[in-house]
């Protein structure tokens, strides 16, 4: 069986271990909103009776595409709605890559990019980036990896799991190299980008951005994502999307349309929770008798914590089996010897309990 048709190890880990834990440090966002919490943000009287259950147009709701495009000074035809950001990335890669082409991936990067590229017959090149998000990346190496067969350079900003954020100066240099290559585009997965950080889509017609509602607004169950670009590849990306899922879920679109006027306050609430929890995590680190090595970026609720032994999977399994806390082995994310932890808890006692269990497991 082809490698890309097997279950990804990361998803297998979630399916095997998450339900067994009584505490979690597995979140990559502020904890998902409950229905009641969501209802508190929706207009008064808005409810299930407002939902339309028919099909959307295949590119998605014109109203929502206009709302999203307006944030980027783009029109609705430059926005494509998809069933989650995973499908957005899938549609871009399948539209652009093929045999005799190559793709340059930031390393480490979400597993789906490599698997989809290989399924398209493309050659995968890896551009290794330091785990420490404040350490400069070697752009000269990236520039050498890009050649006339390159169709995509793929970045994630802010990065999962290190939190690295690509600044405009660095992105500008990468874009210039991409524009020197006849058929290349830059794909930036911005699913973790707070609105305070400017999107890369403004840099060039050769930039394609994917995004969605899962992380910034803590609405992963809506399974709503999008592609934003001024590139003339949009029609090909749309065609792949039409074959894959036909159209996004109309109820999910309607919920986001209704939330649109209050997304600013919703995101502000999540930033406050993230800031509070990051401070709690830093206080926890300072209390440790044995110093804990940590990698953490300037935004978000993720961090990498070094494991006491190189076998991070065994450490993570022991944390679940003996201490009831769920974490992600870094080796499943291209970061062996680390655990990825998420501190997106809405309630501090839950975070404190999870960190206490992590501490017990790391010193056991």
Characterise this structure.
The chain is of the alpha/beta class. It has 2 domains: 3-35 and 264-363, Aspartate Aminotransferase, domain 1; 50-261, Aspartate Aminotransferase, domain 2 (3-Layer(aba) Sandwich). Helices cover 38% and strands 16% of the residues. It is built from 12 helices and 13 strands. It has helices spanning 9-17, 35-41, 62-70, 84-96, 111-119, 139-145, 168-179, 234-244, 250-259, 263-287, 312-323, 348-363; strands at 23-24, 79-82, 102-107, 123-128, 150-156, 185-189, 207-212, 225-229, 294-295, 302-306, 325-326, 328-329, 338-342. Strand 12 (328-329) and strand 13 form a beta hairpin. Helix 10 packs parallel to helix 12.
Please summarize what this structure is.
With 364 residues, this protein is of the alpha/beta class. The chain is built from 12 helices and 13 strands.
Strand content: 15-25%
Give me the count of strands.
Answer: 13
Average of pLDDT: 96
SSE sequence, one letter per element: HEHHEHEHEHEHEEEHHHEEHEEEH
Give the proportion of residues in helices: 25-40%
In spatial order, strands of the major sheet run 2-8-7-6-5-3-4
Structural class designation: alpha/beta
The CATH homologous superfamily of the largest domain is termed: Type I PLP-dependent aspartate aminotransferase-like (Major domain)
For the record, the count of structural domains works out to: 2
CATH topology of the largest domain: Aspartate Aminotransferase, domain 2
What is the correct CATH architecture of the largest domain? Answer: 3-Layer(aba) Sandwich
Low-confidence stretches: none
Number of helices: 12
Largest sheet: 7 strands, mixed
Give the terminus-to-terminus CA distance.
40 Å
CATH class of the largest domain: Alpha Beta
Output the radius of gyration.
Answer: 21 Å
The gross shape turns out to be: globular
